[in-house]
Amino acid sequence: MRSWTARHWLWATVAAVVIAAITGTVAGLIPNPVFTRMIEAPWWSYPVWLAAAVLSGLLVGTYAGPRTEQQRTRRGVVGTVLSFLAIGCPTCNKLVVLALGTNGALNWFGPVQPVLAIGSLALLGFALRARLRTTSACPSPVAA
């Protein structure tokens, strides 16, 4: 496997920090005056939040190489979205409340969130593994 350059690590770090800040703020895991949770976050939300941010950042870092390496993947996007749904407050999610009502959000969507968390981390890990395999198989462009 080809080693990462400083550019890869920079993009991965910046992306992980930005993703953690955005998802943590909107999900109410980072205390802020704009978004507040109506229900306290379960203990597992914090490790899932950080793991998803790191995996998403590493996935973004794989795209920092030369243009010849660019390849689209939907798994990473789906994994990041699922992790956001997994760590968010069930009654704060307008779409869930609209579809299921407040009772449905608490009684149906709330218990499903740990499954979404596991699925999101699995998808992010699978997408990262696939990207690392793909990018390491690509030959480095030779300067003419």
Automatic annotation (TrEMBL):
The chain crosses the membrane at residues 9-31, 43-64, 76-96, 108-128. The keyword Membrane applies. Keywords: Membrane, Transmembrane, Transmembrane helix. It comes from the Bacteria. This is Integral membrane protein. It comes from Saccharopolyspora cebuensis. The lineage of its organism: Bacteria, Bacillati, Actinomycetota, Actinomycetes, Pseudonocardiales.
